[in-house]
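Duplicate of #3305? Posting structure anyway:
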């Protein structure tokens, strides 16, 4: 743990214990430096982390103060415990039934998989797209076929370099969103009937893609704070012929877990020893609340086993359907798969996003987006604390835009889903995130939409519906 994280944890314990109470002013940065013998940067990073967690707030020209928190902080869920070994999937019909019911734009979108579109610079992106269409070189219809637009891949390689990862533009394949990238990666390293390792819980699209390709899955326990259990994964690799691992290491959907940097390194060492590739779904990596980004797995990928999949859908351009794979040793296979399936990703979109990365102020947009999501997370947590009954658990994510709630065991999340829809509220019930439809008393809530009286009323209604089942 770094110095700023250690200082943040110490301060959080003092707040939790009531030593610092709501409204109390924290020591100034200078005072904290003298007390803890650390630098001003360390104190600033610690206070920023506490602010992102909703524990403190900065007041102009006054310093940092403990935020008023309504109710006691809810306890954290424990490690998941998936039952059984490998599973032949039959989940798509069930998932589609659930998802079809949450498309109505009139409902409060707590069950949505997308953040608010108003968080993104869509007007500015539209201007870049219009410019790209006007100046489109006819030769681009050939030169920008897979692996994709050269300038876009160069810009992506520069972003990897800024994270300490030496990724060549030649190993980056542009895709039509991250989901296509995940499918291409799975097709490159598996055949029908093969076994892959996934998290428990996992994003439902992982289950759907695996089912469509005729794969079996083995679910690995995860913790909602620290992610995948390395011990359980090591045991699974020893006992089963696992062909690939498909994990979210940064702000997993639905749990929000973030695998610590040291655990990421250990995970990659483990997979290297077994020569099992990692397909990493990393669409939320830019949405961190702390002062620095999580470790990029490609920075530790010494032999090309990591297929790093991401997109701009969650951090910049929803609806543009532009993703990519940094494919390592599998680049040529994935490029061929792309050519033989969808041929190419929309070329003007590639050109527009390459221009935006160069000239559009992407980093400034990301800073605003992260601050907005951190504030919205704190508000949703406070609402849940205020309205949900005793026995509720949740983990505070360090990024992304999902809360993963464990409700009292008597609660039926599928029944809650139906009841909530009758009140104009969507939620994502836990069973859609499990190959065996586990997590029957869990739900995922989306804090990617600005707080509003309508959302506050929806949380109050949900809390009452939960209480009514007890």
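Output from current build:
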């Amino acid at each position: 743990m770094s110095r700023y994280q250690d200082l943040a944890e110490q301060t959080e314990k003092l707040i939790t214990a009531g030593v610092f109470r709501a409204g109390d002013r924290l020591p100034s940065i200078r005072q904290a430096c003298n007390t803890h013998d650390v630098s001003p940067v360390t104190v600033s990073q610690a206070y920023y982390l506490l602010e992102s967690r909703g524990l403190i707030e900065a007041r102009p020209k006054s310093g940092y103060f403990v935020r008023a928190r309504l109710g006691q902080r809810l306890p954290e869920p424990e490690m998941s415990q998936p039952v059984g070994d490998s599973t032949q999937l039959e989940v798509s019909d069930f998932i589609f039934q659930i998802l079809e019911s949450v498309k109505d734009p009139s409902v409060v979108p707590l069950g949505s998989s997308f953040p608010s579109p108003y968080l993104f610079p869509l007007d500015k992106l539209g201007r870049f797209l219009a410019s790209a269409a006007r100046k489109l070189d006819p030769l681009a219809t050939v030169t920008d076929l897979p692996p994709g637009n050269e300038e876009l891949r160069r810009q992506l390689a520069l972003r990897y370099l800024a994270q300490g990862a030496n990724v060549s533009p030649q190993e980056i394949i542009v895709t039509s969103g991250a989901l296509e990238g995940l499918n291409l990666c799975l097709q490159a390293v598996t055949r029908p009937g093969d076994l892959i390792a996934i998290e428990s819980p996992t994003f439902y699209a992982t289950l759907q893609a695996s089912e469509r390709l005729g794969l079996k899955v083995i679910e690995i326990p995860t913790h909602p704070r620290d992610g995948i259990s390395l011990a359980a994964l090591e045991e699974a690799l020893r006992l089963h012929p696992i062909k690939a691992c498909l994990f979210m290491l940064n702000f997993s959907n639905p749990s929000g877990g973030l695998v610590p940097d040291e655990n990421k390194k250990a995970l990659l060492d483990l997979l290297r020893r077994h020569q099992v590739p990692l397909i990493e779904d990393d669409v939320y990596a830019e949405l961190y609340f702390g002062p620095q980004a999580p470790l990029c797995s490609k920075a530790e990928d010494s032999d090309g086993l990591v297929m790093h999949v991401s997109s701009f859908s969650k951090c910049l351009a929803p609806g543009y359907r532009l993703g990519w794979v940094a494919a390592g040793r599998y680049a040529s296979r994935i490029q061929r798969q792309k050519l033989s399936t969808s041929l190419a990703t929309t070329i003007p979109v590639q050109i527009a996003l390459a221009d935006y990365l160069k000239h559009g102020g992407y980093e400034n947009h990301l800073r605003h987006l992260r601050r907005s999501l951190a504030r919205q997370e704190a508000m949703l947590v406070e609402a849940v604390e205020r309205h949900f009954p005793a026995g509720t658990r949740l983990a505070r994510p360090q990024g992304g835009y999902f809360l993963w709630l464990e409700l009292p065991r008597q609660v039926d999340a599928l029944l809650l889903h139906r009841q909530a829809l009758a009140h104009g509220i969507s939620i994502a019930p836990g069973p859609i995130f499990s190959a065996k439809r586990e997590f029957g008393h869990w739900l995922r809530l989306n804090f990617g939409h600005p707080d509003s009286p309508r959302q506050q009323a929806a949380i109050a209604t949900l809390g009452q519906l939960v209480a009514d089942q007890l």
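Confirmed duplicate; merging threads. DSSP finds 16 helices and 15 strands in the chain. The longest strand covers residues 216-223.
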